[in-house]
Amino acid sequence: MTTEADQAGPEQLHPITLRVNGVVYTVSVPGRRLLSDCLRHDLGLTGTHVGCEHGVCGACTVLLDGEPVRSCLMLALGAARHEVTTVEGLRRPDGSLHPVQQAFRECHGLQCGYCTPGFLTTVAAFLANQPDPSEPEAREAIAGNLCRCTGYQNIVASVLRAAELARAERTNAEPDGAEPDGADRRGQECP
Amino acid sequence: MKPSPFVYHAPTSVDEALHTLGEVGGDGKVLAGGQSLLPILNMRLAAPGHLVDINGIAELATVAVDRHGVRVGALARHAEVERHAGARAVVPLLGQALRLVAHPVIRNRGTTVGSLAHADPSGELTAVLALLGGSVECARSDRRREVPAAEFFLGPLECCLEPGEMALSAWFPAPAPRTGTAFVELARRHGDYAVAGLAAAVTLDDAGRVAQARAAYVSVAPTPLVLDLTEAVAGQQVDEAHWAAAGELAATRCDPEPDIHASANYRRHLVRVLTARGLAEAAGRARQAEAPPGEAA
């Protein structure tokens, strides 16, 4: 079927300003450009992975104003008014790993790593709302993300470990909190 | 896969959106949350020439609650409705159903009205609207109409919206006094499409006996199937009611289709079991709601 859009020749480009990981980008994209493709192809932020491209696998999950969304189910144009955080943006300003990244590393929460960016963003947002999840809650939190390597056990352990790390980080950050040398020795092992 | 090319429109008012939709007619699709539309576009199951993105129309991002019910605007996300304490209090069935709609990540973008317009026979909200006797406000540039749930859903993925028309809001009326509700479903994994499920509502009389028992089903019929099962349990006390008999009755009144996930017989079995479970849960809540103010779940 020939649509009106086909007959119109080259696709119309829309200039947009995107704010991703605190950096402002200006790009021109066709209306049909998916946010996932815009991040990867137009902005070169290839940390966001594209798996199924219809919202099932969760690999492309990014944060939109802090809330996890599927970047393959959004048009790039739709992200223009929002703050986007990709896996690249989880890293701390000093270059150290986010507690979720640290936990996945410690607990072997990844093997091939393809699904990992989606898990990291999903779990980071989950722990921001639920800092002390039970194991069933941790399992449900990742129910929308597929991993074909790990069998999920180490990912669940990573979620719980990340919660521990984040709690310890908050405790240490409090001015009158625990001793700076990390008196909190909880969870030196993966759960 | 990627969507095929389309002309992108981003109206900033309802009038502008309706004007654009009127011009492009049947070649236009409305983009709200996109959690059903984008997969369809990505897989090129549909290739509309025009996409009318209503995400810039702030007046549609509303959840309005009064004691009669909840009016959900076309841009209100599932997650917003789910978190809305006032909406959950007046129409508890909304919260009971929404926690079963896909995964939280999808609910952050997907809209309640959009899932009604999508009219998926497995969409939980379709059963909620049908059971409560709600309606959808549909608008065209020259006409507005409020369509009752019973007339809104025409078939699988088909609602009564005409070319140039869009759904502006949905009305979920509060259930009658002394009514409890529940949503139960069986899915392979939490968040997956239900193999079968139902919204249940039980109303008690002054003496705490069952006055009415109804259910609306998903994944059982092409459109949400509403059954009045009162005759199986009328006049019975909540603790002694024959919910299983209501389940039997429901099983005889449905005619589910087989697919790769379940045979027709298995679906009918689920209707039997889940109906009994859902009605009992709803009746328990009806009794709680009846109790003196203070502790109603």
Keywords summarizing the entry:
heterodimer, A: alpha+beta, 32% helix, B: globular
Written description of the protein model:
The complex is a heterodimer of chains A (191) and B (297). Chain A is of the alpha+beta class. In chain A, 32% of the residues lie in helices and 14% in strands. Chain A is built from 6 helices and 5 strands; from the N terminus they run αββαβββαααα. Chain A has a 5-stranded mixed sheet with strand order 2-1-5-3-4, with helices on both faces. The longest helix of chain A has 21 residues. Chain A starts with a helix and ends in an 18-residue tail after the last helix. Chain B is an alpha+beta fold. Chain B is built from 12 helices and 14 strands. In chain B, α11 crosses α12. The model of chain B has no long low-confidence stretch (mean pLDDT 95). The chains are: A alpha+beta (191), B alpha+beta (297). The interface between A and B is large, with 36 and 37 residues.
